[in-house]
Predict the 3D structure of the following.
Amino acid sequence: MTATQSALRAGAVPVTATRGGRLHREGRAAYLFLAPTLVFFCVFLILPFIFAIVLAFSDWGGFDLGTIHWAGIANFREVLSFDGSFVKPILVNTLLFAFGSVLLATFGSVLVAYCIDRLSFQRFWRVLYFLPVVATVVAIGNVWKMMYQPAGLINGVLNKLGVNSVGFLSDASYALPSVTIVHAWASIGGAVLILTAGLKAIPEMYYEAAEVDGAGAWQMFWSITLPLLRPALLFVLITQFIGGLQSFALIIVMTGDGGPVNATNVAAFEMYQRAFKFGAWGTASAMAMVLFVIILVITLLQLWIARRRGEETS
Amino acid sequence: MRRRRGGFPWFAYLIVVLGAVAMVMPFLDMVMSSFKGPGEYGVIPYKLLPSSFNLDNYREAFSQLELFRLFRNSVIVTISVTVSVLITSSLAGYALAKLRFRGRAVIFRFILATMMLPPFLLLIPTFLIMLNWPLAGGNDILGRGGDGGLATSLISLILPFAVSGFGIFLMRQFMVSLPDEMLEAAKIDGANQWQIWRLIVLPQTKPVAITLGLITFIGAWNEYIWTLLISSSDPDLQTLPVGIQLLQSFLDPDRTMPIVMAGLVLSTLPVLVVFLLFQKYYVRGVVLSGLK
């Protein structure tokens, strides 16, 4: 309507009249095309999101909506209390799990991506490293669980080397590092692909110039590759950290209950157990909300960094 | 293209090969263990190779796991999710890329924002919504009174994944670069928007559709948490990953693990074949998602 009115004032009556009609028709078509998407997001995104917030502030067990009570911040007080198990060890475990696996996966993937870039048959190598990303978490979790057993592959190799067997998943002090390694192992492939795209974007002439100046491979890596890879590296670091904070499928498969004694329990898994084992919707939703806020802060930080870099380069 | 700086890269080869061994070894162990007979698995000292490659565990997996039922459920869910995501993403992507209408910028920004909501946050409310879905599983029009609601049907495994914000984003970014002249010409010839989408835009989006289809297919095939939750009260809804995982928690692990491994080999094969056939497209999708 306003488009037609302003066009009328400009004095181009016949052309804009049909153009206005076309725009109107285009708008109707657009909303028809978007209808399934918008309906979906209302039912499966906006509605559950509001529900999640309401639940976090209410006291409710069972399934009858009539018995739901407003509880204020009681759930959060319970969840964040230092006497409970959520902050320590569960939230601490979550951070250690996410941070440890990101550190391992990033270090590994930078090394591997840089090395693959210097070899023949590059695609073959990358596909090989990508295999764990394609396999289901049930396959990955069970295979590693099997390899970690006293009679498994890893202890078999250790025994051959004269080292005593390690209770990777049964010993409380080894269990969290053990599942962290598996998560890192499974995420290297995706990171290698993204870092490779970053590596390919570095102009070859930088390396040629450095070679003329007599720089070695190691020097080139530190002074050319690493600084120019920073955007891709930062993206990998942050997205994988966010992924690590919310991942718990591997832990269900490998340890069943987050044991031994909460040693591998993480926030999203505790939420899952509280909700679906004990029906404590309120407490579980408050846990979800705490984790969500942590992730949101990191996401906004990432957006802020990306935007600042955009201003720098433009 | 290839960088051969400083002679033959011995060190690079060493690193890549060592890493590749670490990547492949677990899968090799999985395949080998799937052939191990009674008394061969879980024995110290560890042996990688089985004494013989007989298919007993695979036969066992078919009978104990009802593998056909799990396979059928996995196929129905995966294909439905993939087709739905492809259709809804290309429809919405086209509207956001090429049609002019009020609210376009707001809706596009909203779809970008949907990607920031982590799935675990919506797990509890979505489950409760499924249970109280109106007129399903014996529920009345207000969603009360029934026993399980929509969570008693395979639809509950499909519906929450039927639209993908990432898919819409991917499609929209690709369609923006389609030439406007082509669409204008079709409009002058009297085509309506539906025809333009169906006959002109859709054929052009084949490469990005393969990428998105593949990512969605593999994600749906491997989906675990939601299916575990929904099928916990109704085993008829189990898919391959969930059914196989539940088998090994019941029985004697030293006897069942090789059977579980056989089931895992069989359930990994289809997705592996699809991935290897189309890996070029999959790789591009991962890179696209990384470079926004």
Notes: Chain A touches chain B through 108 residues (CB under 8 Å).
